[in-house]
Structure formats: structure tokens, C-alpha cells
Amino acid sequence: MNQYLIFWPMILQMALTFCIYSLLLKRRVAAIRAGQARAGDFRGREAGEPELSRTVANNLSNQFELPVLFYVLCLALFATGGVSLFALIAAWMFALSRVAHAIVHLGANRLSRRQPIFMIGLFATLLLWLALVFQLLAR
């Protein structure tokens, strides 16, 4: 198994994060232009995010929660030579679920759709932990 394949789902996750950063910038500039905010309003979270960009800011925060475990797991699997078909499927399942989660969150934002997608990503993370544990036990 080509161990380097584990980097592609990581690259997708990072690309998603940069897309959300871009969308946040666009929404914040639009909020300033619409008179809903001033540039100084974005100094800290306590200032209160305008409605136009609040959901995007929340989604961006989500990209630094569960995905951090995902990055660690992928790097650990790579470092231990533990990238397997099972791990790759779980990694792609995670990355694609994060894209779907972001689409729902930044779109209609229906919790009834968002939660099951989040659970898929959470389950994929658990599978990656299991892949790492089995890799370490096999040594």
C-alpha cells in the first residue's frame, strides 16, 4: 500500500478550511459594506459576529476541532507505516463528510441533516483510531 495516499484526504480537508476562510473574508467584507459591521468589530469574538458571517465563522471553528484529531491520526498512521485500505477508506469518509457537513452548515443549516453527517465523520475518526491501535499492536 502506498503510504503517501493518506495525504490526499488531508489535502481535501485543508482545502475545505481555506475555502471557508475565503468565504468568511467575503462575508465580513460584505457585512462592512452593508453597514452591518465595522472592521474593528472583528478584533475578538466578544464583539459579536454579524449575522451575514456568523455561521461561516462558526463553521471555520469546526474545522479546528475534530479535524485536528484527523490530521494527527493520518500523520501517525503514515509515520508507523499503518496506512491500509481500511485506513484510507476511513480517511476519505472523514474528509468527504466534512465537506458535506460544511455544505449543509453554510447552506440551509438544518440540524436534522447536519448531525448525521457529523456522526459519520466522528465514526470515521474512531475507525482511524482503531486502525492505529491495530497497527501498533501488530508490531
Helix/strand layout:
Blueprint: H1 7-33, H2 51-62, H3 66-79, H4 85-106, H5 111-137
Helix pairs in contact: 1-2, 1-4, 3-4, 3-5, 4-5
Q: Describe it for me?
A:
With 139 residues, this protein is mostly helical. The protein has one domain (3-137): Four Helix Bundle (Hemerythrin (Met), subunit A) (Up-down Bundle). Helices cover 73% and strands 0% of the residues. It has 5 helices and no strands. The chain has helices spanning 7-33, 51-62, 66-79, 85-106, 111-137. Helix 1 (7-33) packs antiparallel against helix 2 (51-62). The longest helix is centred in the first third of the chain and has 27 residues, at 7-33. The protein starts with 6 loop residues before the first helix and ends with a helix. 26% of the residues are buried. The mean pLDDT is 94.
Summarize the structure.
It contains 5 helices and no strands. With 139 residues, it is an all-alpha fold. The chain has a single domain (3-137), classed as Up-down Bundle (Four Helix Bundle (Hemerythrin (Met), subunit A)).
Strand residue percentage: under 5%
- SS class: mainly alpha
**Count of helices?**
5
Number of domains: 1
Rg over CA atoms, rounded to whole Å, is: 18 Å
CATH fold naming: Four Helix Bundle (Hemerythrin (Met), subunit A)
If you average the pLDDT, what whole number results?
94
Q: What is the level 1 CATH name?
A: Mainly Alpha
- Terminal Cα separation, in Å? 17 Å
Could you name the ranges where pLDDT drops below 50 across 5 or more consecutive residues?
none
The CATH level-2 architecture is identified as Up-down Bundle
Largest sheet, in brief, is: none
> Helical content, roughly?
over 70%
Outline type: elongated
Give the strand tally.
0
**Succession of helices and strands:** HHHHH
